[in-house]
């Protein structure tokens, strides 16, 4: 069970056991919530900093906008709530989970008659796909579950209900002995992992699916694109057929939780040499320099917790 300490709940810091909602809350029945996953890093200089806080808050409010959820807090108030949650729990490094959801009033499908409520939790959380996975790569499979078509559920909204698709992908992969599942989009092209974007390395170029691939606009993906450009690498947003997964020289997954996790095999077919590739390693190293405050150019991505 995750140990979170105090939780910010509708503007107040509550004790862990007091942060409760009613069982008739709309979100529990219909998935009507939007959330974020944000990381807090311990910097090399000993301070702690939230990584790309502004971008996460912007995406959270954008997700809510798509679902017509009017957030009863300004972005600045919300950011203060996040920093207060970290400070009250004396957290130095970990994961931050803001959630904005439809609460309890009516139980019809129309969500708009319910109050919009918010929580922020934060806790210690290490490598999502394992320390070993970060170093040597993970075994993944192509899921039999596709991502929803663009005119069904909006993939750019990080909405709670979208994660029913992710759960099917993840459970199937684990049941079959893999560590993660990759979903194709409705046309059968590569979309993303259950909670990560994907990059392929082919002939020295970095390839990632375009926005319209039923995948989330990942903030870590954006970091990787900037790192790649700094390293003088070619990055292309391209529609990628499934078989590219078997032909790529390197593959890695990106996400706030997953960070940059190499893929060692897809459907039991080795990727490249079957362990972390050279380009993946280089990008990982640059990534960790940035999040630990060792790259001046990206200092503004770090919100120091004073
Ligand atoms: N796709 C999905 C479905 C995700 O849940 C995540 C994690 N938020 C990502 C991609 C990666 O996004 P980010 O790098 O912003 O964490």
Which SSEs are present, and which pair or pack?
Elements: E1 7-9, E2 12-14, H1 26-30, E3 33-35, E4 38-42, E5 48-51, H2 53-66, H3 75-88, E6 94-102, E7 116-123, H4 131-136, E8 138-142, H5 163-175, E9 180-184, E10 190-193, E11 197-202, E12 205-208, H6 219-230, E13 235-237, H7 244-247, E14 250-255, E15 259-266, E16 269-270, H8 278-291, E17 302-304
Parallel strand pairs: 8-9, 8-15, 12-13
Antiparallel strand pairs: 1-2, 1-7, 3-6, 4-5, 4-6, 5-17, 6-7, 9-10, 11-12, 11-14, 14-15, 15-16
Bound molecules: 4'-deoxy-4'-aminopyridoxal-5'-phosphate (PMP).
Description:
- The protein is α+β, with helices and mostly antiparallel strands and 306 residues long.
- It has two domains: 117 residues, 2-Layer Sandwich (D-amino Acid Aminotransferase, Chain A, domain 1); 161 residues, Alpha-Beta Barrel (D-amino Acid Aminotransferase, Chain A, domain 2), CATH 3.20.10.
- Helices cover 27% and strands 26% of the residues.
- It is built from eight helices and 17 strands.
- The strands form two sheets. Strands 8, 9, 10, 11, 12, 13, 14, 15 and 16 form a nine-stranded mixed sheet that branches. Strands 1, 2, 3, 4, 5, 6, 7 and 17 form an eight-stranded antiparallel sheet that branches.
- A hairpin with a 5-residue loop joins strand 4 and strand 5.
- Bound molecules: 4'-deoxy-4'-aminopyridoxal-5'-phosphate (PMP).
């Amino acid at each position: 069970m995750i140990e979170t300490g105090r939780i910010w709940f509708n503007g107040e810091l509550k004790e862990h056991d007091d942060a409760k909602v009613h069982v008739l809350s709309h979100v529990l029945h219909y998935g009507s919530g939007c959330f974020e996953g944000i990381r807090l890093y311990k910097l090399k200089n000993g301070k702690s900093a939230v990584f790309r806080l502004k971008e996460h808050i912007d995406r959270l409010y954008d997700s809510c906008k798509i679902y017509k959820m009017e957030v009863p807090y300004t972005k600045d108030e919300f950011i203060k709530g996040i920093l207060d949650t970290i400070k009250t729990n004396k957290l130095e490094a970990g994961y931050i989970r803001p959630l904005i959801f439809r609460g309890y009033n009516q139980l019809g499908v129309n969500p708009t008659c319910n109050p919009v409520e918010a929580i922020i939790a934060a806790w210690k959380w290490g490598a999502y796909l394992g320390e070993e996975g970060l170093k040597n790569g993970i075994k993944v499979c192509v899921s039999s579950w596709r991502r929803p078509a663009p005119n069904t559920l909006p993939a750019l909204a990080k909405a709670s209900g979208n994660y029913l698709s992710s759960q099917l992908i993840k459970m199937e992969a684990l049941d079959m002995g893999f560590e993660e599942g990759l979903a194709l989009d409705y046309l059968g092209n590569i979309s993303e992992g259950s909670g990560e974007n994907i990059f392929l390395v082919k002939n020295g170029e970095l390839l990632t699916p375009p926005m319209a691939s039923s995948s989330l606009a990942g903030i870590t993906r954006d970091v990787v694109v900037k790192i790649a450009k700094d390293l003088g690498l070619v990055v292309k947003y391209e529609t990628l057929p499934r078989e590219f997964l078997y032909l790529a020289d390197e593959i890695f997954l990106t996400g706030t939780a997953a960070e940059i996790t190499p893929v060692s095999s897809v459907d039991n077919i080795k990727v490249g040499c079957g362990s972390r590739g050279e380009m993946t390693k280089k990008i990982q190293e640059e990534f960790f320099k940035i999040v630990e405050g060792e790259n001046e150019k990206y200092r503004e991505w770090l919100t120091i917790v004073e």
